[in-house]
From TrEMBL, chains A, B:
Keywords: ATP-binding, Cytoplasm, Ligase, Nucleotide-binding, Purine biosynthesis. Pathway: Purine metabolism; IMP biosynthesis via de novo pathway; 5-amino-1-(5-phospho-D-ribosyl)imidazole from N(2)-formyl-N(1)-(5-phospho-D-ribosyl)glycinamide: step 1/2. This is Phosphoribosylformylglycinamidine synthase subunit PurS. It holds the Pfam family PurS. The gene is purS. GO terms for cellular component: cytoplasm. It comes from Sphingomicrobium sediminis. Its EC number is 6.3.5.3.
Length: 76, 76
């Protein structure tokens, strides 16, 4: 089973990587961009039947820093 | 308009970050995980009506290293 975890910075948390990307896009002539935020995806092959609770525990304990990051779990 | 770019390493490209996450998950007792790959998400606010060609150009020129990375564009 595939699980995908999307980790993004909470609103209000400074994002220097996003700022740098934004600046570079402007420098390349892409003017329509008004905001950029950078985050992470983690794709995992997990055992079939792994429940959402387990995936949530992985996020809370290791994958996301819940003080400054939100996460979203997607399974297929 | 929101655009989301998902950037993942191509299959076969070594992923030390994913390996480290995998190892750490095992260390925490999550045994059902057989593979982990780490990637990036870039969330952008772009001008309404920005076409897919422009977003593709951003990926090709700056956001993704197309030698080793795949990208996927999602707009809403």
């Amino acid at each position: 089973m595939k699980a995908r975890i999307f980790i993004t910075l909470k609103p209000g948390v400074l994002d220097p990587q996003g700022k740098a990307i934004h600046h570079a896009l402007n420098g390349l002539g892409f003017d329509g961009v008004s905001d950029v935020r950078a985050g992470k995806v983690i794709e995992m092959d997990v055992a079939d039947g792994t429940d959402d609770e387990t995936l949530k525990a992985m996020c809370e304990k290791l994958l996301a820093n819940t003080v400054i990051e939100n996460y979203r779990i997607e399974t297929e």
